[in-house]
Amino acid sequence: MTVIFSKKCEYGVQAVLYMAAKDLGCVCPSDEIAQKLKIPKEFISKILQSLTESGIVGSKKGKSGGFMLAKHPSKIRLIDIVAAIDGLDLFNSCVLGFPNCSPDKPCPVHDKWGELRSKAYEMLSAETVDKFKQKTLNKIGKI
Amino acid sequence: MTVIFSKKCEYGVQAVLYMAAKDLGCVCPSDEIAQKLKIPKEFISKILQSLTESGIVGSKKGKSGGFMLAKHPSKIRLIDIVAAIDGLDLFNSCVLGFPNCSPDKPCPVHDKWGELRSKAYEMLSAETVDKFKQKTLNKIGKI
DNA sequence: CTTTAATCAGACAATTTAATCTGTTTTAGA
DNA sequence: TCTAAAACAGATTAAATTGTCTGATTAAAG
User: Min CA distance, B52 vs chain A (Å)?
Assistant: First the structure.
């Protein structure tokens, strides 16, 4: 099982961080990304296609084509990738699955969880992919 | 999709909170719990059986039987229920799904996520189900 | 112009998780 | 003792997620 994001989302974030760690505007075929990150190639290809529709990633067809970031890495927040793939329900749904969990009908852990959820949201909103360049390069070298 | 716990785990925590909100030692048939919490009855029955094996819940067979807490509510932590159903991998797995994520091979967000994960673990370890009695009663009244 | 390597599109298969079904055993109470 | 209501056990189905396959389209390069 995954931690909080779907597999699609995990792989999507990995791929965007990977592209952000390369030279600006660099074109990456999905096969390269799949190999470097050990992700099934057809799967990451599909995910990158959906990120293309979301405007986070760009694509170039044909020989020597591939994917590239559609924006400057400093303009891509982690939350943008999550929102594009998994959506933001995660940050509005009840952590215990109670129906109609809301401030006026709070579940028992509403407040305790709310704090953590806000911190997570803030972190993902504050961090842009350019900030992870060095850490991503380190990690990729060790996969 | 669920937030972080599986549906089984969400329902398991709900059911234990429900029992903790009732009188001490009170016997609850799974049908009652299913109706009050709007959970499929065969499903919650299975979940309660597994919590019985884990020693968190006790059971009484036959007519006027049902489930009851096997320990005093002040001795049941939220993390105990999570551990029994979903396990604790959640708190050791890479949030981005990178292979071999560890302090010496950290993923790009290892530190940022680590803080949040620790806080979540601490909260679930600190909170025992007796503390949610009033909030649970409030919520159940509004489902 | 042909070949090659890429995205793209959509169907399909496999796996995991969630939920249901069928039946057995147990026990309180009439 | 009989019946009803419950846990218990195991098989099965359904749904969602993950992963694969086939083929079409596109474009660079020889």
Answer: 20
